[in-house]
């Protein structure tokens, strides 16, 4: 049968036991590491975010105690600065990696894909820079 007579649902489907093309090179290893990063960062983020929510919203009176002084006391400790920094970086990179995958899946034109990924990169860099700057330069004595 020719492709013209094949039902539309079966066109382009490879037989399960057909030999697969092996993709080698930089692109495939990047995608593998990207996939691994999503899984590992997701696990770490669950711990960080649940810990954050528990401490900020449940323990010792909940959200009513969160104010300037609470944040100042929390960020006076390097432990909490690193906790919040790690949460910021992992959440931003995890989300950006997912959005990069969506852009690659749905942007049909190479030019569109390039500009969307460039905008994504710029937003990620700006968000990480501003967030990191706030965490490490927070001044509790500011009036």
TrEMBL record:
The chain crosses the membrane at residues 36-55, 114-138. GO terms for molecular function: metal ion binding. Pfam families: Sdh_cyt (PF01127). CDD domains: SQR_TypeA_SdhD_like. It is found in: Membrane. This is Succinate dehydrogenase hydrophobic anchor subunit-like protein. Coiled coil: none annotated. Keywords: Heme, Iron, Membrane, Metal-binding, Transmembrane, Transmembrane helix. One of its GO terms (cellular component) is membrane. It comes from the Bacteria.
């Amino acid at each position: 049968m020719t492709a013209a007579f094949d039902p539309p649902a079966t066109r382009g489907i490879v037989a399960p036991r057909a030999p697969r093309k092996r993709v080698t090179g930089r692109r495939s290893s990047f995608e593998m590491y990207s996939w691994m990063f999503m899984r590992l960062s997701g696990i770490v983020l669950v711990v960080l975010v649940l810990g954050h929510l528990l401490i900020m919203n449940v323990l010792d009176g909940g959200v009513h105690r969160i104010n300037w002084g609470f944040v100042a006391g929390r960020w006076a400790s390097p432990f909490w600065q690193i906790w919040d920094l790690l949460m910021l970086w992992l959440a931003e990179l995890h989300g950006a990696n997912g959005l990069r995958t969506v852009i690659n899946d749905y942007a049909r034109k190479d030019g569109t894909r390039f500009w969307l990924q460039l905008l994504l990169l710029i937003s990620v860099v700006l968000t990480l820079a501003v967030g990191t700057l706030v965490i490490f330069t927070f001044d509790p004595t500011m009036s």
